[in-house]
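Example 166, ligand magnesium ion.
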Amino acid sequence: MKTNQTLILIKPDGLKKSLTGNVLTRLSETKLDIVAAKIAQVSKGLAEKHYSHMKDKPFFNELIKYIMGDYHKKKVMALVYWGPDAIKKVREICGSTNPEEADTVTIRGQYGRITTKGVYENVIHASTNEEEAEREIKLWFEPNDIIVDIYPTKTADINKKGKTWA
Ligand code: UDP
Ligand code: MG
């Protein structure tokens, strides 16, 4: 087992449906550590960066609106989970991307739906591999937001204490 870290987003549908507690309870089954957490409003720029790999999909614009909260609440909860096999354990509890195909005992199987426009409102995002996790965690969090040292940092400005991703 390899210790790694993963970015989790409780998406706007999860917040709108008051599923934060349910989702965190399910994730606690992994016995992983939460090492960063925040509530954030997603700008168009952040949404497009987060889903940059989906930009050629026909549903890209709808996906951006969905993650920005245009259809629910304009917020997401972002967390970093860390521990043995974190990426794999979290993805297993999330279930398949398509909520209708996801095992019914997974988070997406329990709480997700497909909209009439065909977007999978699947409540939760979780990184799929170590490269994706690194890119996403660095996109969503600054080094000082995370209570463990997971990636190299550099001091942003010698006159300030701030750190930035190296
Ligand atoms: N998505 C969708 N329709 C699809 C594929 C993906 O609406 O056919 C949405 C869905 O919300 C998904 C997100 O786009 O969570 C990102 O897609 P990805 O393939 O990365 O799935 P994930 O890693 O979230 O399981
Ligand atoms: Mg993905």
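Summary: Residues 128 surround magnesium ion (ligand 2) (CB under 6 Å).
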